[in-house]
């Protein structure tokens, strides 16, 4: 599912290219800068259409933002792991704010379990 190691290698290559360009402009660069993952964005598909109105009511207003007139997705804030999941009526979702791939997996498992428990996903 996850290609984190390959993506990290691409990040390192991009940093090397940018560092060389900055050095060429006369600005000294620290060798081997530390790479810290701040935000992983991932998408997934629940495999079925979902009713966002029912989900907004079921998940509770304190963790959900849903204003279909302004944005077609439901914004769901999860505390553990600390991520934000955008749910769409098509069943597709986007997870943002994760710091490691396992956060994404845990968030998708959590939202899937919550929707199934509420009878909103088969």
Distinctive features:
five-stranded antiparallel beta sheet; single chain; alpha+beta; 122 residues; 3 helices
Main sheet: strands, sense, barrel: 5 strands, antiparallel
The gyration radius over C-alpha positions equals 19 Å
Which sequence of strands runs across the widest sheet?
1-5-4-3-2
- Number of helices, counting only DSSP H or I runs of 4 residues or more: 3
Query: What oligomeric assembly is this protein in?
Result: single chain
User: What is the strand tally?
Assistant: 5
What's this entry about, in short?
With 122 residues, the protein is α+β, with helices and mostly antiparallel strands.
Describe the protein.
The protein is α+β, with helices and mostly antiparallel strands. The protein has helices at 4-24, 52-59, 101-117, and strands at residues 40-45, 64-65, 74-78, 83-87, 92-98.
Task: Describe the secondary structure blueprint for this structure.
Layout: H1 4-24, E1 40-45, H2 52-59, E2 64-65, E3 74-78, E4 83-87, E5 92-98, H3 101-117
Antiparallel strand pairs: 1-5, 2-3, 3-4, 4-5
